[in-house]
Amino acid sequence: MSATVEGRCPFGFGGDSDSTSVMTPSQNLGTQAMAPAALPATESAARVPYPVADWVDPAALISDPYPTYERLRREAPVAWVPALKKFLVTSYAGCHAVELDQEIFSANVSGATMNRALGAQPMLRKDDPDHAADRAAINPVLRPKNIKEAWAPVFERNARMYLDVLEEKGPGQADLNRDYAAPVASQNLIDLLGLKDVRVEQMRRWSHDFIAGAGNVLDDQAIWDRCEASRAELDAILDELIPFYQQHPNASMTSALANSGLPFDNVAANVKLTISGGMNEPQHMVTNIVWALSRHTEQLDKVLHDDALWPAVFDETVRWLSPIGMYPRETTQETTLGGVRLPAGAGIGVVVASANRDVDHFGPTAGEFDIFRPKTSHLAFGSGVHLCAGHWAAKTSIGQIAVPLAYQRFPGLRTDETRPETWDGWVFRGITSLPVTWN
Amino acid sequence: MAKISFHHSDGNVDVLDVDPGTSLMRAAVTNGVDGIVGECGGQAMCATCHVYVRPEYLDALPEIGEDEEEMLECTAGPRDETRSRLGCQITVGDGLEQIEVDVPDDQI
Ligand code: HEM
Ligand code: HEM
Ligand code: FES
Fold first, then answer.
1. CATH number at residue B84
2. What Pfam families does this protein's entry cite (chain B) (predicted)?
3. Which of A229, A427, B6, B36 is a good FRET partner for A220, with 20 to 30 A between their CA atoms?
4. B52 in a domain, yes or no?
5. Residue B108 lies in a domain
């Protein structure tokens, strides 16, 4: 099989050149194996039994994915996208159906390199019952009560520390991403994980190295070396921390994992998973919220007069600008989704950022930012057994603490239109530079 | 088969016949019962499967576990001291061949 792996974990796992994670349709089925169902009326599309969206352009997705999502929802909410070698599911109903059935839509996305990269599979790439054993270890740490009692004071201390940094930069120089969102998210996670003595820069480097490893399709040895060096650094720290927490348990995730009876490799893999998955998204939420409120000042005014609205601000922002745009699944057998036949072993992209703007679920105003919209469930944290383990932590640390405190400290906080901002990505989408100013 | 009735505040009732061992949340979600979200897939992590159990069935239920107790403090609809439960923590069959619950107006 040709080694054409476009889909790979941006967090650095799976994705070197021998991993063949996605079978192309021609490898799975004879052409015309099934009656063409709902097909675009083009010559080439007529040969495969499912809609093909050959117009989807990865570069357009990276600069602004929402127009592509809208067209996919309208024309083919379950479609084979040749440029990504995946079926993209872009409707709310389709994404939700995938999440309900982990037997058919497995999170155990193939790619043997994953084990090489981590030493073990983390929970995100397992299905129940194996998944549940890992997940049960950290759930108690991440339920709302422990977050509120043990961690909210720590999140507040971290936020205040970096508000000082922002203040030093001043309203003409401050970059909300660089000076606040990034270090706050990183320090929060260091504390929540219980990685004593790890510095913010070190966390960031680890996560960068993992991501670089992910993009390592060309098998660049230097990238592997960095990735492995970072893993070794972290493993060395865990070698000491795990026995320490077995003697001195506390409210951190590593302590919970260390005392769960799971083997070392398993504990380590899940700590790495959390380092990769628990930092960028909260960071992006800080900047996304300020960006959204700067463009909806009448809503901002209401929030500033009513603290009870902050949870709605978080929920609406994570829906409207979802930091994780897509995550992967793989079919374990032939199946039908939204009227489209999918072969066994098909790579599926669950495009939650698109589902989160589906008018069939959110009504005609789905594309607008409105913190007063009727409460409706969204998929920004996924759903089902892989529902983000850190969702309460993120809502608290960012939605209730980091962002409200920033508005409290800097009256008139807003994006600074005189300096350029930058956005990047679609699988993970966020602001990479956000100049802000205040009165 | 066991029988579950979901009563909605508008008077509608969804009655489901399900296999023993099925949780109220799973039954509702697979059958598209309105008002039960079940976001976390049954891990007692989201509290979006909140139900009010009708009093005549309360005695047949298992004790409220520690995790469930904690999450019942986070329901979107008001908690009822005796009748509130998480739908994902209650399975039918094995002494609970039938149950009726009221669905709260808010889950998120
Ligand atoms: C450290 C543990 C992790 C491992 C071992 C892992 C493994 C993988 C693998 C093997 C793939 C390739 C799937 C394919 O064939 O397309 C993948 C893709 C992906 N993973 Fe991870 N992953 C990890 C952490 C995470 C985390 C924490 C997230 C986000 C919360 C995440 C999100 C994704 C996404 C969005 C893709 C799809 C990328 C694309 O197709 O372009 N991963 N992962
Ligand atoms: C706004 C911030 C966040 C967003 C939008 C987000 C989003 C997500 C999504 C969409 C998934 C599911 C991926 C899949 O099913 O393939 C996920 C899983 C996960 N997230 Fe988050 N996340 C956020 C913050 C966090 C934080 C702060 C932590 C750490 C405490 C965290 C830890 C995890 C873990 C461990 C998983 C894997 C859960 C499992 O497989 O059962 N996340 N996240
Ligand atoms: S389904 Fe999440 S708590 Fe019951």
1. 3.10.20.30
2. Fer2 (PF00111)
3. A427
4. yes
5. no
Residue of A nearest to B37 (CA): A377
Pick out chain A residues at pLDDT < 50: 1-46, 112-115, 119
Chain A CB contacts of B43 under 8 Å are 132, 135-136, 139, 385, 387
**What is the ipTM for the molecules in this complex?**
0.84
Which pairing describes strands B2-7 and B98-102: parallel, antiparallel, or unpaired? parallel
β-bridge partners, A234: none
Any domain includes B107: no
Question: For residue A262, how many other CB atoms are within 10 A of its CB?
Answer: 18
d(CA A436, CA A178): 11
The CA distance from B8 to A410, in Å, is 46
In angstroms, what separates the C-alpha of B37 from chain A's closest C-alpha?
8
Q: Which of A100, A140, A391 sits opposite B29 (nearest CB)?
A: A100
Distance A337 CA to ligand 2 centre (A): 25
Distance between CA A255 and CA A192 in Å, rounded?
10
Is-cis flag, bond preceding A129, omega within 30? yes
CA dist A137 and A389 (Å) reads: 11
Query: Ligand 1 pocket, A11 CB below 6 A?
Result: yes
pLDDT at A100: 86
Does residue B36 fall inside a structural domain? yes
In short, whether B39's Cβ falls inside 6 Å of ligand 3 is yes
**Whose atoms come closest to the Cα of A381: which ligand?**
2
**Domain range holding B58?**
2-102
Question: Which domains does chain A possess?
Answer: 32-437 (1.10.630.10)
DSSP state of B104: P
Question: Contact B2/B17 with Cβ under 8 angstroms?
Answer: yes
pLDDT one-digit tens code per residue, B8-67: 999 999 999 999 999 999 999 989 999 999 999 999 999 999 999 999 999 999 999 999
Q: Is A124 in the pocket of ligand 1 (CB under 6 A)?
A: yes
